[in-house]
Design a protein that fits this description.
Layout (H helix, E strand, L loop, with lengths): L1 H8 L3 H13 L4 H21 L5 H23 L7 E6 L7 H12 L3 E4 L6 H11 L3 E5 L6 H13 L7 E5 L5 H7 L3 E2 L3 H17 L1
Parallel strand pairs: 1-2, 1-3, 3-4, 4-5
Helix pairs in contact: 1-2, 1-3, 2-4, 3-4, 4-5, 5-9, 6-7
C-alpha cells in the first residue's frame, strides 16, 4: 500500500503501473489497493496542496496519475461493459475544484457508464437542461466548498418545482458533503469516493430498471 501511496505523492505513473502489475501477480485486492494505497496518496496530495506546501502543477501531475491508475484498476475489476446507464456529472456553480469529480467521471466511464461531464462552476439550470436533453439516469454533483453545498440543495428544490424530481436519481459528493447532508436536502445517494460512486450508481440504476 505504501508504494502505491508514494507513487501518487511523487506523480510517478511508471511506478504506479508497476505497483498494479505486482498486485496482480501476488493476488492483492485491487479495490483495496486503489482505496487504501493510491486513494490515500491522492487524499494526502490534496491536503498538502490546501496547506500551500505544493504547487498547482504538482497537484495536477499527481491527479493525472491518479486518473490513469483509477481507469486501469476499474477496467481490471469490472471490465468495460456497455449500457450500464447514463450519468450527468458536474461541479456546482461557484466551485472551481474538479479533480475529484474528474476521477469519479473517469472511473464511471471505465465501468461502462456513459458519462456527460459538464465540468466545473455549472449553474443548476444548466445541469437540469442538459439532463433533460440527454435523458440521463443519474445527476451527480460535486461541491468541495462548504459555501457551495447550497447549490446541491438548490438542485433538489428546482427539480421538485419543475415536477422532475422522480425522474432522476441524484448523487452528491465532495469533501464537506456527508450522508447527513444528503438526507437533509433530499438527495438519493451519497458517495465518498470513486469506487463507492460506481457501486451506488449500479445499485440505483438496477433499482430504476426493476421499476
Amino acid at each position: 500500500m505504501l508504494a502505491a501511496k508514494v507513487s501518487i505523492l511523487q506523480a510517478d505513473e511508471d511506478k504506479a503501473m508497476e505497483v498494479i502489475d505486482e498486485a496482480i501477480a501476488h493476488g492483492i485486492d485491487l479495490s483495496e489497493l486503489l482505496r487504501s494505497g493510491f486513494g490515500a496518496g491522492n487524499t494526502e496530495v490534496g491536503n498538502t496542496f490546501e496547506k500551500g506546501t505544493i504547487s498547482l502543477p504538482e497537484l495536477l501531475y499527481s491527479s493525472e496519475v491518479m486518473k490513469s491508475v483509477t481507469e486501469r484498476v476499474m477496467s481490471l475489476l469490472e471490465g468495460v461493459e456497455e449500457n450500464e446507464g447514463k450519468i450527468l456529472i458536474a461541479t456546482v456553480e461557484g466551485d472551481t475544484h474538479d479533480i475529484g469529480k474528474n476521477i469519479v467521471a473517469s472511473t464511471l466511464r471505465a465501468s461502462g457508464f456513459e458519462v456527460i461531464d459538464l465540468g466545473r462552476e455549472v449553474p443548476v439550470n444548466q445541469i437540469i437542461e442538459t439532463a433533460e436533453k440527454y435523458g440521463v439516469d443519474i445527476i451527480a454533483t460535486s461541491a468541495l466548498l462548504t459555501t457551495t453545498l447550497t447549490e446541491q440543495k438548490k438542485l433538489e428544490i428546482m427539480l421538485r418545482d419543475l415536477g422532475l424530481r422522480d425522474k432522476y436519481t441524484t448523487m452528491v459528493g465532495g469533501a464537506p458533503c456527508t450522508p447527513r447532508w444528503t438526507k437533509r436536502i433530499g438527495a438519493d445517494v451519497y458517495s465518498e469516493d470513486a469506487i463507492e460512486a460506481v457501486k451506488a450508481a449500479r445499485a440505483a440504476i438496477d433499482k430504476k430498471r426493476k421499476k
